UniProtKB/TrEMBL annotation:
Keywords: Hydrolase, Magnesium, Manganese, Metal-binding, NAD, Zinc. The lineage of its organism: Bacteria, Pseudomonadati, Pseudomonadota, Gammaproteobacteria, Pasteurellales. This is NAD-capped RNA hydrolase NudC. A divalent metal cation 3 binds at residues 178, 182, 223. InterPro entries: NAD-cap_RNA_hydrolase_NudC, NudC-like_C, NUDIX_hydrolase-like_dom_sf, NUDIX_hydrolase_CS, NUDIX_hydrolase_dom, RNA_Hydrolase_NudC, Znr_NADH_PPase. mRNA decapping enzyme that specifically removes the nicotinamide adenine dinucleotide (NAD) cap from a subset of mRNAs by hydrolyzing the diphosphate linkage to produce nicotinamide mononucleotide (NMN) and 5' monophosphate mRNA. The NAD-cap is present at the 5'-end of some mRNAs and stabilizes RNA against 5'-processing. Has preference for mRNAs with a 5'-end purine. Catalyzes the hydrolysis of a broad range of dinucleotide pyrophosphates. SUPFAM superfamilies: Nudix. The gene is nudC. Substrate binds at residues 70, 112, 127, 196-203, 246.
Length: 262
């Protein structure tokens, strides 16, 4: 990032943690001086509505009417992913002000997203950390396995199984482990579906479809409030919002289940 020239104009992404400043259902637009940003630092991270989009350096405790990034998942994918990029980069720069190798101060590089140590004898570059996690929809005949996580116990929302990839583990191994740990079910025929950046604060959701192999539902009670098999032709519970890869996985699985009669 570098100091903002007062004449610079475009859209501005101002963040605080996983919150963004999104007044009137859009990012603020105009010149830096008009928006009171001339004393901040920023970097262009893309384009928004055919105009430059600048990520503004975060100021802790800044008083604004913030919008939680998750609540904007219904935006067009390109826009939502740009917001994710900004939130993740701000998190990266905020947590990499000093070199993890020698402890000296770092500076943002201009040729790529990185923070470089300023000590002449070191020069180590750190890059944004992306934590991969799997998310999987499991089907059995004409049924789909859905779980209500502890954090959704009040809303009664049911969704797919998800979890972080561990060191030395393939995505497919993570799928098998997470489904077994959370529900007691073994799966087979794991197929890649798609992915989605998920900046809370720096995840990448990697989606899969899988088939039931064996086992009865046995809850991991520390994380899962309930898990059930739902028939594709019967009423479903509250599901994740539009725009999430979780809902896309559920809809794709329901289509597969319903096609079994055709």
């Amino acid at each position: 990032m570098k100091n903002i020239a007062s004449h610079l104009s475009g859209f501005w992404l101002i963040t605080q943690g996983s919150n963004v400043y999104f007044p009137n259902q859009n990012l603020p637009f105009g010149s830096a001086v008009h928006l009171g940003l001339a004393d901040r630092q920023a970097v262009q991270i893309g384009e928004w509505e055919n105009q430059p989009l600048f990520l503004v350096s975060e100021v802790l405790g800044e008083a604004r009417e913030w919008t939680f990034l998750r609540d904007l998942v219904g935006l067009p994918k390109e826009q939502f992913y740009l917001l994710n990029r900004g939130v993740e980069l701000n998190h990266f720069y905020k947590t990499h002000r000093f070199c993890g190798k020698c402890g000296s101060k770092t500076a943002h590089t201009t040729d790529e997203w990185a923070a470089q140590c300023q000590h002449e004898a070191c020069g180590y570059r750190a890059y944004p950390v992306i934590c991969p996690s799997i998310i999987v929809a499991v089907r059995r005949g004409k049924e789909i396995l859905l779980a209500c996580h502890k954090r959704h116990a009040d809303s009664k929302m049911y969704t797919t199984i998800a979890g972080f990839v561990e060191v030395g583990e393939t995505f497919e191994q993570t799928v098998r482990r997470e489904v077994l740990e959370e529900t007691g079910v073994h799966v087979k025929n794991i197929q890649y579906f798609g992915s989605q950046p998920w900046a809370f604060p720096n995840s990448q959701m990697v989606g899969f479809l899988a088939e039931y192999d064996s086992g009865d539902i046995r809850l991991q009670e520390a994380e899962i409030a309930d898990a059930k098999w739902f028939h594709c032709d019967e009423p479903l519970p509250i599901l994740p919002p539009q725009g999430t890869i979780a809902l896309a996985l559920i809809n794709a699985t329901l289509e597969i289940c319903r096609a079994k009669d055709k």
